Amino acid sequence: MKELLICTLMICGTLFIFIAACGLLRLPDLFMRLACTAKSATVGVGLLLVALAWHFGELDITSRALATVFFLLLTSPVASHRIARVAYIDGIRLWKGTFLDELQGHYDQKRMLASAKEENDQRN
After folding, report:
1. Using CA atoms, how far apart are residues 96 and 103, in angstroms rounded to an integer?
2. Are the C-beta atoms of 50 and 8 separated by less than 8 Å?
3. 24-37: string of b/e by CB count within 10 Å (b at 16+)?
């Protein structure tokens, strides 16, 4: 029974990672690719790590695996949001089939780029 549960978790995790890879290849723009991979790959890796923790069942391995899952769940959405925001401000074009740009008018791109340049100059 334990082996069946572990195999099921591993197959589900592998499928989620495969879906993320297919989305990376098939989706038309950066923002869709980023959303797909951030969600699917995080869930897939999380399921694989839970399967690993369940298989070994030792406290040190389980705690490391669960800490890694927790860390992934915290950092992956934040990192993908930050990458998408910077890409949008930098002027990466949306897919031509996009009919609603909810961020249009919220960011003054010239001001954002100028303030980033000033901040970079102050650091150096």
Report:
1. 16
2. no
3. eeebeebbbbbbbb
Residues counted in the chain = 124
Q: pTM for this structure?
A: 0.77
Q: pLDDT digit string (tens) for 5-35?
A: 999 999 999 999 999 999 999 999 888 899 8
- Note the pLDDT of residue 100: 73
d(CA 71, CA 77): 11
Helix (H, G, I), strand (E, B) or coil at 104: coil
In 6-109 the beta strands, taken as DSSP E runs, fall at none
Helix (H, G, I), strand (E, B) or coil at 52: helix
Structure tokens at 14: 């592998």
Counting DSSP H helices and E strands in the chain, the numbers are 4, 0
Q: How far is CA 105 from CA 100, 108, 112, in A?
A: 12, 7, 13
The pLDDT tens digits of the residues spanning 48-93 come to: 999 999 999 899 999 999 999 999 999 998 999 899 888 888 877 8
Structure tokens at 38: 């951030």
